[in-house]
Amino acid sequence: MDGFSYSDIFATKGIEYLIIITFLVLLIPFWIVLNKQVEIKIRIQQALGFLSAGILKIPQGLFYSKNHTWMYMEKSGTAKVGLDDLLLHITGEVKFNHLKNPGEMISKGDLLMEIDQNGKLLRIFSPVSGNILNLNALINENPGMLNEDPYGKGWVYKIKPINWIGEAKTCYFAEEATKWSATELERYKDFLAVSMKNYAPEPSMVILQDGGELCDHSLSALPKEIWRDFEDEFLNLN
Predict the structure, then answer these.
(1) Is 80 within a domain?
(2) Are residue 30 and residue 125 in the same domain, yes or no?
(3) What is the DSSP secondary structure assignment for residue 8, as one 8-state letter?
(4) Are strands 120-125 and 50-51 parallel, antiparallel or unpaired?
(5) In sequence order, which ranges of the chain are alpha helices (DSSP H)?
(6) What is the pTM of this model?
(7) DSSP assignment of 11-59, as one string?
(8) pLDDT tens across 202-230, in order?
(9) In this structure, is residue 189 part of a structural domain?
(10) Is residue 179 one of the residues assigned to a domain?
(11) What is d(CA 25, CA 161) in angstroms, rounded to the nearest whole number?
(12) Could you tell me the residue range of the domain that residue 29 belongs to?
């Protein structure tokens, strides 16, 4: 066959491989720089108090309720319950009222606690039914621990559940929880946009001018009326 030889094929393949290798060599530094920029942006947001999906803690293995509580089933059959990271980034540091005592029974949807920030209140309802076994006394002694370590030392209750399988099915888990949390942050922005028009015409209080980034603990700067609307319209959904 005229004009055809195996050496030509190998030469062509060699050029293709060289192009691919060159592309990868150029791509890797670009990828490293790009990821470094993302990491730097997240660190800047953390330092300046911006609230974005990238800084939210969503540990795997936990069940996340629509009312922004979380549950974790221990090997002993006891469920730890606490407040999720998004809610605490929204509210800032809080104290507790109307905490349940060990030995009390509670049903899913019952009042579990009330969080208080300088007289601005949010009612939190239980994501699970069962017997209250223990209350973390340290959270009122050191309220900052709740924000610093919400899924570790900042747990609120230990509960012996009576319908774990059925009630856990209503929660978000694993990757679904991560996606839901990002969606909830966007829903919170929409909620604020409406509420600010009604109560606080100066959006700079909670939303930065450049890029529309939310300030961390944005709800803490807002009046009781918006806290009430936040509970009714955002937090405690059926």
Answers:
(1) yes
(2) no
(3) H
(4) unpaired
(5) 6-48, 85-91, 138-141, 144-148, 164-168, 175-199, 224-229
(6) 0.76
(7) HHHHHHHHHHHHHHHHHHHHHHHHHHHHHHHHHHHHHHTEE-GGG----
(8) 554 555 444 557 788 888 888 888 899 99
(9) yes
(10) yes
(11) 55
(12) 6-48
